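The records we work with from here on pair a chain with its fold. Taken together, the tokens spell out the fold as the letters spell out the chain. To see the layout at work, look at the sequence and tokens printed below.
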Amino acid sequence: MKKITILALSWRDIRSPKAGGAEVHTHEMLSRADKGKYRIYHFAPRYEGQPERENIDGVTYIRHGNVFTVIPAAMRFYKKHRQSIDFVIDQCNTHRFFTPFWVESQKRIFYIHQLTKEIWEYSAKFPLSKIGKLFEERFLRLNRHDPVITVSESTRDELAERGYDKDKIKIIYNGVSFRPWKKEQWFPKEENPTFIYAGRYSPYKGIDVAVEALAHIKKENPCARLWIIGKKDPEYVDKNLMTVCEKNHLTWEDASGDNPAGDIVSWGYVSEEKKLELLSRSWALLFPSIREGWGIPVTEAGCVGTPCIAFDSPGIREAVNYGKAGYLCRDNSVNGLADQMCAVLSDKTRYEEMRNSAYTFSSRFLWDETGNIFGEWIDALYYGKQK
């Protein structure tokens, strides 16, 4: 039986220095598809120290150029292998490959985790922020008639508002790479109220909001603290977080052992095992982001017995099942986050119910299932066209 050949295009791959949740989803989705049925290439820019070509978990990664020159490089690769390639997946994560201009319509798949929208205001200064928002809306029109992969109902609905056919949008959820822990495997919670943030240091993700909220609750709960895990960005810390710490008289500590004592503790990049341990020991994960595709740390935390306090934002609200499997802020602000942190501390009965709800809901999302759903959808597209 002929293998279905897929060319996936993205501005980052799983080994890129700034790889995040989108890259994890991409790799897990592609790598867990049945290699007996699919031949998969992933084309992305090359970063220093990376090979031009390598196989990772059955996916052939090809790297050329930078975020700009990778587009003509991908065009050349496609032109050379056009006859053997069945589908081209154009992943839109701010960057895109403009495949409507050089790939036949029957081969195109559009892949988007989230719209950027208000994130432009956090990541670029005026007037670039306004220009970015304007061009995003216009560029989205290019793929309105293509089959679409996305990761949440929020993104699907926003695309539908822009003229996309809901019936052609496939939601392929995020997952976790480990089996959800049995409850007896959960770590005991820290004696002092301990909250945690896991992810990149980025303005729109709201780490500064989490620090400010901690300062609010420490007025009544002086032993409360915040742990941060993720590769530390010293420039972001100095510019955005230290001013909040100094204003609120919070101490900052870079972790050097298992029991650091600072009000704010930066653990930096940790192993997968250590990350899950810290998530399990914490009382609640804080996720005050204004927009996400989904929020993988929310699901990971739930699978080790820790609920999330999340902003009511696209993507994240679904990761906490609209407040049924996590605390959803009534308003996306410091006060809104602090209110839910206080609820964790004050209502132990509800907290235990939320822990169990988060665990039950999060345990549904596994990467193996993601790969299966992707493969079944590709089959439907391919064999439907052969009829």
Notes: The radius of gyration is 22 Å. The chain has 13 helices and 15 strands.
